[in-house]
Records
---
Amino acid sequence: MNSHYLSLSFIITLFFFSTILPPSHCNVYEPFVKCSRPFECGSIKNISYPFWGGDRSAYCGRKSFKLECHNDEYPVYRFKELEFRVLNITRSSMTIARLDLWDTPCSRNLLNTSVNYTEFNYALNFHNLTLYYGCPPSVNRSFQNWFSCSSETGNANNGFLVDNETFLSTKSQVFENCNTTIKVPISRTSLISETEFVDQALQNALNQGFDVQYRALPIICGGCVESGGKCGSNSTYPFVCHCHDGEQPYLCLRN
């Protein structure tokens, strides 16, 4: 009788505490859990702060570092009217290429390339190409660096590449009758030789993209990670440390 009473009393007590105490995993701060998930798309893997997107919420990164995954093939970074294909991401930089110029130099979006200068700097190895569109036939007859565009783009059927600003300054009058001009960064290692077939060399250079470096990433992110946290942000502060048990301004407090 006493044994039965003790067993029943134990079961009631266990049930009581199980209803007032949530499972241990529910005590984990939700942003900590979500920011533990890296951004992954195609060959780009294990990407964390300052980037966010996909399964990573906005508070896992910085506002200007949103990535989108295109058909599970490659990440896309957007800035204003331009979209960039992300080719590589390192701890301090990423390699990007204009998506509208991927596999063709004949874009409908004839805008100068621009990036968010509050967050990024061009790497030292960047070089600007100047592309002219809708140039008269006299340009083609006078110089070798011209490329062709199909009429499907809505542009004139020829353009001209300037890879040398000195050349441009001495020959600028030649291009006055071209319809449009844009500037596109490339890596200095992919500079185009005058002896190469221009269409192919230009496209290779555009597809290799260019590097941008992140501006002023908080050094304190390292301290946050070392203390067991996940770097992130919130609606008030551009940097916070998401910890197992809540949010801290710099790093997790250890008991």
---
Amino acid sequence: MANESRPCPCDIGDKFDYGGRGQEVQVGHIKAYVCKPSASTDKAVIVIHDIFGWQLPNTRYIADMLTTNGYIAICPDFFVGQEAWKPSNDWASFSDWVKTRDAGKIDKEVDVVLKYLKDQCGAKKIGVIGFCWGGAAVQHLMLKNPHLKTGVSIYGVISRFEDKHSLLHPTFFIFGEKDDIIPLEQVTLLEQKLKQNCKVDYEVKIYPGQTHGFVHRKREDINPQDKPYIEEGRKDMINWLNKYI
């Protein structure tokens, strides 16, 4: 990684003071945050959290944003009760911590969530988005899960699946130009591999001047120069979902 002392520079100082519009529910063996639009819909989006877990207000803010755009949104606890990373934790222990939370081993949980969305919410068309750790999980799901329509991987850790590019579903990749843990060389290589191997629609977009976490970790007004790119990233995410769900 580019920054071994602090391998995931999500700025927790930009954490929202946000309570959420949805509710916490039990979905099989895991808990989840669910928010539904006022009008009935058969479209849903699974939101996969970053290392800070399913209760992070920033992630719930994005889930609620999806709901205002007409989607049932669900953010499950993909750590299955294990503690999320805390800003006060020692980054030297991060590699050991993340080994017990594998973004490529969430299939059991995804199956439970898909069943819940179909049986309890009436969802028929389901997509997925994810941030950082969750972005890697999105790439994993786009490679193998036949029940999802599309995915948006937002600064997903490319190195986790750097040798796998035969996506099953249209996938949108969002990256920040100044991301300390996802160097632009990795993004360029991803584009090359996708061009060689991918048979479905995809897009890779780099947002100028933006750091890791910009789409969901920053308030829109915290840095005036970043606001247009934060809003653009969120709009692009919604537009991609609208196109394929």
